[in-house]
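Q: How do we represent a protein-ligand complex in a form that can be generated token by token?
A: Start from the inputs.
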Amino acid sequence: MTSVALRLAVAPPTESCDSGLAAPTWDFDALTTYGPGASVDDAVPAETTNATTRPGQLPQAYRDADEADLYRRIEVAKETLGDRVVVLGHYYQRDEIVAHADFVGDSFQLANAALTRPDAEAIVFCGVHFMAETADILAREDQQVILPNLAAGCSMADMADEDSVEEAWLDLAEAYGFDPEGSDDPADYPGGKLPVVPVTYMNSSAALKAFCGRHGGIVCTSSNARTVLEWAFERGERVLFFPDQHLGRNTAKAMGVPLEQMPMWNPRKPLGGNDEATLQAATVILWHGFCSVHRRFTTAQIDKARAEYPGVQVVVHPECPMPVVDAADAAGSTELIRQFVADAEPGSVIAIGTEVNMVNRLAAQHPDKTIFCLDPVICPCSTMYRIHPGYLAWVLEGLVAGETHNRIEVDDDVARHARTALERMLAAAPKPLTGSAQGAPAATAATGSAR
Ligand code: SF4
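Then emit the structure tokens for the protein with iron/sulfur cluster bound:
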């Protein structure tokens, strides 16, 4: 059964956002777009630090294999490789991929899960490019991290490329009068605070994590964004937050930062589209980036759910626009959403604002509760969708044959600085626990709001 068919079996029949989802699998595989689904209309950058623009490279034999054959071949290859390989599956992956995952979780949970398998020579990351980079940064030097399809990028991560962020940094240095390559020690600045602390969301390239490492900045996840911002405000006058404006705005607003102190930085405009006075008053400068999956959710959908299901509880991801987060009963990371559903009383009705594969899986796992996606239109993450079982079979059988396909390797210098920013995050927030409930290690302490 294909993932679309499975979703239709679990959720009420509904339309999809992209006819490509119903097209034969390989019709989209050679395209240089993000693929069918929520990001299909996002502009692919001419030059990108990840590999989004590369079309799939899957040998024909794997394209010709049917689903049952691929399932069997994946299982045989995993059995043959044993502890030499660990397969990681992001929550937003298709069910046909999650079925083979040793660990299921969000990006940071999965990178940490890999650390619990030191015997694994290869880490096969069924997610998107920045996740595989993060796993490579955290993995042992001799471990190979593999992204089954190099076309699985992330349109949000691509919205903040290294050159644009470097240019913005120069503009901000001029506006606030600091040396762009100066000290990253707050003690070296008036008032003991850095003029700007760069904060990047985990959903960004390794190059941007390294940028933060070099400039006194830090990485955050959707679980710990508030803790990280508190850390940043202790060390700096203001924050440059990229690439997701919504996570930055929702988190800072919950901390009491006024909206007028959160200007947007549009990298295509001079000074990001701001004047000097706006920048002087800024507390959080928000990069003009967004997730096309979470941007689909609206307050009208919440109103409709409340009208149709009195007593419904609405939980959404903080990558959703601010009015949606404000109208929901709870907002938090993917892990918080999973826990919210698990903790709900039998008979509960829960409307969820996050990726549809995850929502439908939660619905299947909790048949005693009514669980549905706020968006009535099937619209998965386009880039996650590009990991097909054919690719997983190909990379695993390659390992059996002694060949490595699609290895992701982060440059040593980039990795060193990126690790600095990641380590600051770990020092600022409770360390994630490890374990393997349905494969998923326990989450970092969720700081999402629940109202
Ligand atoms: S759901 Fe959004 S942020 Fe996550 S990989 Fe897809 S496009 Fe990127």
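The longest strand covers residues 85-90. The two ends are 38 Å apart (CA to CA).
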